[in-house]
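Sanity check

After download, print the first record. It should look like this:
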Amino acid sequence: MPSVHALLSFALVAFAMAITPGPNMAYMVSRALCQGRRAGYVSLAGVAMGFVVYMLAAALGISALLLAVPLAYDLLRLAGVAYLLWLAWQAVRPGGGSPFEVRALPPDGDGRLLLTGFLTNLLNPKMPVLYLSLLPQFIDPARGHVLAQGVVLGCLQIAVSVSVHLTLITLAGRVALFLADRPVFARVQRWLMATVLGGMALRLAADTRR
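Expected structure tokens:
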């Protein structure tokens, strides 16, 4: 079982990744704005299914990774650093957009919403970074079975991400209006997010394998 400190720390990492604009957020919020909250909730169910696939695959892979291939972990860690820095740049680059910008989308049925949410998450580059580069540093083989720790941390990530996205979908309309009327606040939010992502990248870069 991971320590309380590891659980809390990873929950914060999962929260920071969840509130960072990306394919999942853009899709679910766009659907909620264009087709209503229910469409956003169905899309979220598909995204959650993708989380489960990543969690199970990564938990099994991490067991072998930590125990047998230290070099592979280091390569994944450095790839994670590079991607987090890229996300930070995307947040503040000139011309960067917001997932809360209203877009015109044709309506989709529940089945298509569910499938698209699932595939959007599977193809989201954030997920390999989160599960293969970030999650392993919160696993301590000395505290018990590595696979079990991976599953516990994965379930924690799913709970945090689903909670964040559920809130964003519910408040999507209000947030879109709020940001549209306050462009300065939107810029501050983007710079704050870039700072969080940069800090995560530095922590991951400084991490050494146990």
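If your output differs, re-run the checksum step. Summary of this record's structure: The radius of gyration is 17 Å.
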